[in-house]
Specification:
The protein is mostly helical. Helix content is about 65%, strand content about 5%.
Length: about 350
């Protein structure tokens, strides 16, 4: 697949920036910092709403995945399909830039909490270079100080080297309670995998809405995005896990608060062409597939209005069978344990002696 393929095919669009694996490790960090600085000035307001951004990505991605399931890579797309795929790449490209810059800024900001930085500096200097060590040592100020230093006076190093240094610190340095550490290492993993080309921009966007630090989702730093609303964002992610974001955009009152007229228009057009898209969010399926939140009230309302779908009945039966199997397995293990051990008090057991016949 390459950009030399016909433009009205999926093969052509799969080679575009959004879905291409690109190793950016060797890009000079000052070049990236300059772009971030210009972006922050140009897009200061309004900040993006994370719930809306997630709905845009998952809704459009669902539609493109549907088109991909119906068309061969070099099969010509019809007019609507081509327009939709073009719109997906253009819109998600913009959203990927925002997400990438945001990850750069917040991971840099969090690194200021490194309790062992002074002791780490010799290794950082050896492993990641003197410019990076000097930058980390020289940054002063609060939350905004370090990220402003990044965009105005970045160290003379590569993007990949800088990001790997951040990642190394989160996994290996000492941190105040509630700051940095493994949780932020996992956030930086997403950034590093995108920079190295392991993740495409599309894969980064698919991951970024799910990322959490020590105190919840990452969208609470006041940069690029508005502060998230936890129940709403988790609701969207729970629905996404069940593959029902188009239904959410069109029929869920909570998602409706974050959707836009254009978004709903595109999902309406999709629903006209894809009969599998339902007329309601199937909350039984959402819960059966392992939701984080409980949706008892939504299930009750759904049952009263629509009943339980065949998919919901099937998943509930599988869930019940799994629970029964776990109960039977536990009972069998208890029986086997009782054959060999005698419980004389809670958590105190002695092995039974088998008498010779």
């Amino acid at each position: 697949m390459a950009l030399t393929d016909p433009e009205d095919t999926l093969a052509y669009h799969q080679s575009r920036v959004l879905t291409a694996h690109r190793d950016m490790s060797s890009v000079p960090l000052p070049t990236v910092a300059d772009r971030i600085e210009k972006y922050l000035v140009a897009s200061a307001e309004p900040k993006a709403v994370p719930e809306t951004e997630a709905l845009w990505f998952y809704g459009m991605n669902h539609a493109v995945a549907t088109i991909q399931s119906r068309r061969a890579p070099l099969e010509p797309l019809d007019e609507w399909e081509l327009s939709f795929v073009r719109g997906y790449h253009e819109l998600m490209g913009e959203k990927a830039v925002r997400a990438f810059y945001y990850l750069m800024l917040i991971c840099t900001r969090e690194s200021r909490h490194n309790k062992s930085l002074i002791g780490d500096l010799p290794y950082i200097k050896q492993k990641f270079g003197a410019p990076v060590a000097s930058f980390l040592q020289s940054v002063n100020g609060g939350e905004s100080g370090i990220h402003k230093a990044l965009v105005t006076t970045p160290p003379q190093t590569t993007l990949g080297n800088y990001v790997e240094c951040l990642r190394w610190q989160f996994y290996n340095s000492k941190w105040h309670s509630g700051y940095g550490g493994k949780a932020w290492g996992q956030v930086t993993d997403c950034l590093a995998r995108f920079v190295s080309g392991e993740f495409t921009a599309e894969m980064m966007l698919d991951t970024v809405w799910t990322l959490s630090h020590n105190n919840g989702p990452i969208f609470n730093k006041g940069l690029c995005y508005q502060h998230y609303h936890a129940p709403s964002l988790i609701r969207i992610l729970d629905i996404q896990r069940s593959g029902q974001i188009p239904e959410a955009i069109l029929h869920d009152p909570v998602a409706a608060k974050y959707s836009t007229p254009i978004m709903r228009q595109r999902m309406d057009a999709l629903a006209e062409r894809v009969p599998e898209i339902g007329s309601f969010v199937d909350w039984v399926v959402v819960e059966a597939l392992g939701s984080v939140q409980s949706y008892a009230a939504d299930i009750k309302k759904q049952t009263q209005t629509h009943g339980i779908s065949e998919a919901g009945k099937h998943l509930n039966s599988l869930k019940a069978a799994k629970i029964l199997a776990e109960i039977e397995k536990a009972a069998q293990e208890d029986a086997e344990f009782s054959k060999k051990w005698l419980t004389i008090m809670p958590d105190v057991h002695v092995e039974k002696i088998q008498r010779a016949a």
